[in-house]
């Protein structure tokens, strides 16, 4: 210890130590000047090798990319205040039932990450944000879409056409999608029953299935369909929407049906599948087998209150089915069926 202290008192040794330290400092000056330079160079190098980075262009692009699957497919539903907020006498909403079906369904919960809820008024948008979902606010100048739009009323027809216009924009941005009305209960992952082959341009639900997946005689229902983004489908929806002003008194679904019966599928060389109600059912024609059904649509029903009432019964039936299946009561499960859709039947009176 005394030897070390004595050495540092020697000027020659001290000078030699100082010169060595100075050389070391000069040798490593580039690193000492900026200790993060190596990481920054690596970062810049990796960025220079990355191409085709898609930067969201606007709020819609940001919402679509957030909800998109890897193959640029999204699930889209459109809501307004009447679907999102309870009235005084109600104990739930259509939106609540819709989301509950994803919770109760088989392999459907992960699909909520790919669901984009499009709100056409501010109240519905606020409700969507409150539920921490993927939300987009669709604005329409000079039109109030907030309240209930009774089936086939003038405001109902306007709202359906605005929906079609929006969905054209989604296709043009390169996104394929399942469109689903909010009054569709998702009891199983529908992708298991849908073809993911890109040669299938459109797969659309029907009110009554005629036994032939390609028959153009079906009564289509635009409340649930899966459409690929390509030039043919963009052209189809463009022709469809262009007929809006020449179809007074008709809803958009009727116009598309007339186009199909008029030969638009062959004209555009489209490949279209008309979905079997055994898997994609509704109140017009119930699925005959709860072991196979994927979705249940409250079609053939006029009012929201009637739909909510009868869809609550659908979820009760589904929970009963799941319970008996869990108990392995095969004979009971086979005989289970749907409750009658009384309120929807009476909604037409």
From TrEMBL:
Q: What are the residue boundaries of the Nucleotide-diphospho-sugar transferase domain, all occurrences included?
A: 111-311
Top-level taxon in the UniProt lineage: Eukaryota
The cross-references to PANTHER family, in alphabetical order and at most eight, read: EXPRESSED PROTEIN-RELATED, OS03G0731800 PROTEIN
What name has this protein been given in UniProt? Nucleotide-diphospho-sugar transferase domain-containing protein
Q: Which organism is this protein's natural source?
A: Quercus lobata
């Amino acid at each position: 210890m005394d030897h070390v202290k004595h050495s540092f008192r020697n000027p020659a040794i001290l000078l030699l130590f100082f010169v060595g330290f100075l050389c070391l400092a000069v040798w490593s000056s580039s690193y000492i000047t900026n200790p993060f330079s190596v990481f920054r160079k690596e970062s810049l190098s990796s960025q220079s090798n990355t191409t085709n980075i898609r930067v969201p262009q606007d709020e819609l692009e940001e919402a679509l990319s957030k909800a998109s699957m890897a193959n640029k497919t999204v699930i889209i539903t459109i809501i307004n205040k009447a679907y999102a907020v309870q009235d005084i006498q109600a104990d739930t909403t259509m939106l609540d039932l819709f989301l509950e079906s994803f919770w109760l369904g088989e392999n459907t919960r992960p699909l909520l990450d790919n669901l984009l809820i499009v709100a056409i008024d501010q109240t519905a948008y606020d409700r969507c944000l409150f539920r921490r979902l993927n939300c987009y606010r669709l604005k329409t100048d000079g039109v109030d879409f907030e309240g209930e739009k009774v089936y086939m009323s003038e405001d109902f027809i306007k709202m359906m056409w605005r929906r079609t216009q929006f969905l054209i924009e989604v296709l043009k941005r390169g996104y394929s999608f399942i469109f689903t009305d909010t009054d569709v209960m998702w009891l199983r992952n529908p992708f298991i029953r849908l073809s993911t082959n890109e040669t299938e341009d459109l797969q659309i639900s029907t009110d009554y299935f005629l036994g032939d997946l390609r028959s153009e005689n079906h009564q289509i229902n635009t409340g649930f369909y899966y459409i690929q983004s390509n030039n043919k489908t963009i052209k189809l929806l463009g022709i469809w929407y262009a007929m809006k002003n020449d179809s007074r008194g008709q809803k958009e679904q009727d116009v598309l049906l007339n186009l199909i019966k008029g030969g638009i599928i062959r004209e555009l060389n489209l490949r279209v599948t008309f979905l079997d109600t055994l898997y994609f059912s509704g109140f017009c024609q119930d699925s005959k087998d709860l072991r196979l059904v994927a979705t249940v649509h409250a079609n053939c029903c006029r009012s929201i209150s009637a739909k909510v009432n009868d869809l609550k019964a659908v979820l009760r039936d589904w929970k009963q089915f799941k319970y008996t299946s869990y108990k392995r009561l095969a004979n009971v499960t086979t005989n289970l069926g749907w409750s009658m859709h009384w309120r929807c039947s009476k909604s037409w009176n």
